[in-house]
Amino acid sequence: MTDQRDRFTRRLLADAGLCSGMRVLDIGCGRGEVTRLLGALLGPTSEVVGVDRDPRWLAVARAQLDARPASSATLRYVEAELDTIELEPESFDALTCRRVLMYQPDPVATLRHLARALRPGGRLIIEETDATMVPASLAALPLHRQVHRWIWATVEHEGADPHIGFHLAAQLEDAGLIVDELRAEALVQRPGEPYDAAVIVAAIVDRIEAAGVATRAEIGVETLAERLEAEREAARATYVGDMSFGALARRPAS
Description:
Elements: H1 3-14, E1 23-27, H2 33-42, E2 47-52, H3 55-63, E3 74-79, E4 92-98, H4 107-115, E5 118-130, H5 142-157, H6 164-174, E6 178-189, H7 197-210, H8 216-219, H9 221-235, E7 239-250
Parallel strand pairs: 1-2, 1-4, 2-3, 4-5
Antiparallel strand pairs: 5-7, 6-7
Helix pairs in contact: 1-2, 5-7, 7-9
């Protein structure tokens, strides 16, 4: 995570009303970034269960278990597919998922499935990235905009919803959940500030090629970060490449 994404996630979790002693489910946990944030927030009397389908990411997350501080909640990781995972009904106090719903063919059905694992009144903390209003800048920044197109054309090819942030409140309500808050925040890049788009492109370059969006030669991964920085510096430009949406919701008490 960049510092900006990290801060948005931290604020969202802090405002969710989570407290010590809770049992929390982190869906699509990947390498465990949010799982560890939850562990630090909740403390040693709590348990956080991270779920992901990719054993490679889970191996990275599990490798860091011994390094967690004594003040952390108990962390546990489970390999499972989201649509088929068997969750004990009403067994969690809260559920988090970040950039998961955007890939679901039926987000409402997914939310209903997950919400059954929550106790009545249990909290949902949902974070998604939305492309509706970005990229934005006063300067042209053609390379920045090209990188944005590569990333979003790839995830759309894979079935992601680029407008998930604007759909989120209605999807939660259609799933029978109560939406307490929906917020959005632009991730702003100032001139000279590090920008993680090149890191993202490098991580998904195989997927970009598989989707037929661009070739490695066209992308030039090895020099992409430097070229992006040079373009932004030359224009002294402020650039908005991402919008993060966050929803705080809950299962009805009855």
